[in-house]
Amino acid sequence: MNGIPLLPQSASTFAPPTDALYFTLVAVSGVIAFLVFALIVIFSVRYRRGSPAPRGALPPFIQHEFEIGWTIATLFAFLMFFWWAGANQIYQLLPPSNAMEIHVVAKQWMWKIQHSNGVREINVLHAPVDEPIRLDMTSQDVIHSFAVPAFRIKQDILPGRYVESWFRATKSGSFRLYCTQFCGTAHSSMVGSVVIMSKPDFAAWLAGQRAAGDLAGQGRTLFASLGCAGCHTPGGPIHAPDLAGLFGRKVPLADGTFRLVDDAYIRDCILHPHSNPPAGFDPIMPSFKGEVDDGQILALTAYIRSLAPRTGAR
Amino acid sequence: MTDAAAPIDHAEPRSRSVIAGSYLDSEGGGLSEWLLTTDHKRIALLYAVMITAFFFIGGAAATLMRLELVSPAGHFLTDDEYNRVFTLHGIIMVWFFLVPLIPATFGNFFLPLMIGAPDVAFPKLNLMSWYLTLIGGLCVLAALLMGGVDTGWTFYPPYSTAFSNSNVALAVLGVIIAGFGTIATGVNFVATTHTLRAPGMTWFRLPLFVWTVYATSLVMILATPVLAITLMLVAADRLFGLPVFDGFRGGDPLLFQHLFWFYSHPAVYIMILPAMGVVTEIITCFARRRVFGYAMMVYAVLAIAIIGFAVWGHHMFVSGQSVFANLVFSFLSFIVAVPSAIKVFNWTATLYRGQITFEAPMLYALGFVGLFTIGGLTGLFLASVPIDIQVTGTYFVVAHFHYVMVGGAVSAYFAGLHFWWPKITGRLYSEAWARFAAVLMFFGFNFTFFPQFILGYLGMPRRYHTYPAEFQPWNVMSSTGAVVLAAAYALPLFYLVWSCFYGKISPADPWHAKGLEWRTSSPPPKRNFLRTPVVTEEPYDYHDPGAAPQAEARPVDAARLAAVAPRPIGGAHG
Amino acid sequence: MAEAALASRTPNALREPWSQLSRQREAATLGMWLFLMSEMLFFGALFMAFSFSRALDPAAFAEAARHAEIAYGAANTAVLVTSSLTITIAVRAADAARGKLAARLLAATATLGVAFLVIKGFEYRDDLRHHLFPGHDFALGRNATQIFWAFYWAMTGVHAIHLTVGVVLVLRLFWLVRRGRMSLASPQLEVTSLYWHLVDAFWIVLFPTLYVAARG
């Protein structure tokens, strides 16, 4: 791309409405600024000291009606912009339910991406065009921020928590990904790219990756190798919660409250098993903090999610 | 129209020493009579010297940054060096330059004069404020000399608490100490305004500069303590391992952001409100008009101060806070822009049917109106969540706040500096050089910061010292503008200092201005007024209500004419 | 008689830039109230942060709070409330030109303040013995219990620093009044008592917050 860039590429469904708002604001701001500048210049010339222009009392119309008038006009204009911006914001809020999920783990100073079938990437995120993509993100250390200007998206990524963003790309190509929350020494180098491909190309790319099985499959392997199966097998010697069909249900906790079993709760149980223990079980689960990284937690979660409820009682 | 106070000096300038008998006159105490002074005017000068020094330190950091950003690959500084430089730039410029910029200098010097008081309510506390700011600044400089801080002026945890290998605790300690100085100044000014107004000086006769300093002082009192405790918690985490903001130990890094911005947004109103006050004093004087809509101007100032406490979340639209919070803060951010817009319209309307002249203070003031308008309008972009998502954390935000803080507050500071220079020093500065500097600053400023709006929407992140090659042309334009801007800032240093020794001596009221500060000699005597003034006129009484101003010559015109060539003064001029 | 002699020796309380003592007192009181407003924001932010953190994990906070020794807290509350009483009477005594009584009561106030700090010191020692300081050897397991204790140390620590400043100010007043170096009409007495009451008021909120309510 030659020449001096003026505007970012428009590569997602968010870009046109955001740009429409932006350029309207530019135009309106330009008009207001021009008005103010022009009036200042005109008054400066016309009413310079000693000029022949007539002065005299200000008509009261100007004193009162104008003031009220321009105050209300300004308030109205600003409220219109708030309404427009707010409506856009809400539209951008919820990802479609059929969105394809991609996990992002940000760490100093790289992006670790994991697709749901287990394919991992570093600093590059491949995704298909025209498909809603939901990004499930967490940080391993400090606050980062996932920003793709061509898509008009940005989301701060916090440690110890999952945050979400989504987009639907409208163009193939490679688009820059920046970290936009200062994160330490190599913050300026935490730059990657989002590569959007046509759906057939993406499928081909995915198949070509050396994926070690799908994510849930990886999780099953870990479930055995880390020893989870030792307690969490129904009918076993240790009385531990049965995980089949657990994901997505509300369970009673020891403190009397109820909690939805979601990604965050599973992660909590693995890392801080005594923080929100379930009711009716002894607090004997060991913590796996330091033994599993975030990628492995994602795999275990995917495995647990895949466990269908057993038939029969329960 | 004039009130029964000290005689106005329209006559020829005094031939004897300018400072004899004034607050500048030596009392035989040497340096300690300055370092232990309780005279608000001397304290104002102590502050002026301090913030000028800090301005040059922060400016040196900015120079390094713009130099580094000339090339996309960033050869000149390493990652860590650049991070420390931009952090220093932010900390110094925010807390040790912009926050005290107008309140501690012109506020200190002119608040008592404008209300007809002999000093502030608590003169010793005033001196303590200066020392607290100085000690805080020295802590920050110590942190710099010991290797610097690399967290950014915003100190976000967990980076600042658990990951940074720099002198975070010392730097935040410096900011906390300076914060106590700010609170003390705020308390002093509010108490002064309430209890030391001269007879007849009712609230609605106060000059708008006093109103803005008053509102600013309330913000200082209420916002700064929140910063102090927040930074103390950061220091406690660094020094004692107290994990309040640690996400991995049950704390919440977002809690820090809420607390930090609860202060830091009102802080920007601390910076801009007094600037608006200065500009009102100047536009009315050089247009020879009463300010348009005095009451609305007062309400606008109070509205900005109050609503300004409710908008902090607009710094956190992408932080992970709730959608509901985003909507509420977006709404309030649009609302807070309305009173500022009213002020811009009122300044413009004040020019209507005036008798306008264009001395340097007026040029800076008009420049302020232009740059503040642009900066304020770009605030609307940032108040819109979808646009903010695109531009937060990028150069768009950097451009926005430099337009309002530097194009705004700093322009207003220079405007006030020139306007009040004769009053403070008793000397006239070189009008030709000053006008040149004002115009140079306006163009240099736009050249430096306007390209950054474009870079921001393109996506160039802030706090980056390397960037994609295609962004280079805009960066080079910005860095070039910065050279011009630096020259425009350096110029006044020369001609203003020169004027102290060789400038023409000023009469007491060179601009024929209203306001009690002009009703005493230039420079003022130690006790400000020979007799306590009694106020009978409205503010900005440049013409009868319902009439228009007449073109009139000013004493300074005569003095200037005399300076140019030896011709007879007198005859109709203007 | 001794009182009158004392009064005649003390210097004028009037200070620059005031011409009337009554105006000076008004301004001093206003100034102190403004400062107290800033202190309310200071502690208020701390309380807000505490409440927010507690809402994130009330069970952990409850467990952590049960280790706070309520006996120490209660004793300290009694001490501090009494000291507010003594300083109030001291100011009244000064207004009634009873300098000796005022001086004694100021001394009592300072003593009670020091007593508070001593009791707090013993409490801190106990807390440290029980490894209740966040860090690698923290006694309680759950994560957010560390957050409770972080706030405990931060809030009581900040309060103790404020109280120490108060003790120094009261001791200074005691010394000046005793030596007759300060006029009993000086605004400093009332203004210092306002500060003292604020520090007391913060403790009155702090005590139930940390020792009672958080227990769940």
Structure explained in plain terms:
Chain A is an alpha+beta fold. In chain A, 35% of the residues lie in helices and 21% in strands. Chain A has 2 domains: 10-39 and 70-211, Cupredoxins -  blue copper proteins (Immunoglobulin-like); 215-306, Cytochrome c-like domain (Cytochrome Bc1 Complex, Chain D, domain 2, Orthogonal Bundle). Chain A has helices spanning 15-46, 60-91, 199-208, 215-225, 228-231, 263-271, 294-306, and strands at 100-107, 110-115, 120-122, 124-128, 132-139, 144-148, 153-157, 163-168, 173-179, 191-197, 250-252, 258-260. In chain A, strand 11 (250-252) and strand 12 form a beta hairpin. The longest helix of chain A has 32 residues, at 15-46. Chain B is globular, with a radius of gyration of 24 Å. Chain B has helices spanning 32-35, 40-68, 79-101, 103-115, 123-145, 159-163, 168-195, 208-240, 253-287, 294-307, 323-351, 360-383, 385-391, 395-425, 431-458, 472-502, 555-564. With 574 residues, chain B is mainly alpha-helical. With 216 residues, chain C is mainly alpha-helical. The chains are: A alpha+beta (314), B mainly alpha (574), C mainly alpha (216). At the A-B interface, helix 1, helix 2, strand 7 and strand 9 of A face helix 3, helix 6, helix 9, helix 11 and helix 12 of B.
| Average pLDDT figure of chain A | 88
Structural domain count of chain A? 2
Number of strands of chain A: 12
Total of helices of chain C: 7
Structural class of chain A: alpha+beta
Uncertain residue ranges of chain A: none
What is the helix tally of chain A?
Answer: 7
Taking all Cα atoms into account, the compactness measure Rg of chain A is 28 Å
What's the helix-strand series of chain A?
HHEEEEEEEEEEHHHEEHH
Overall average residue pLDDT of chain C: 90
> Gyration radius of chain C, to the nearest Å?
20 Å
The CATH topology of chain C is what?
Four Helix Bundle (Hemerythrin (Met), subunit A)
- Structural class given helices, strands, pairing of chain C? mainly alpha
Biggest β-sheet of chain C: count, sense, barrel?
none
Give the biggest sheet of chain A. Answer: 5 strands, mixed
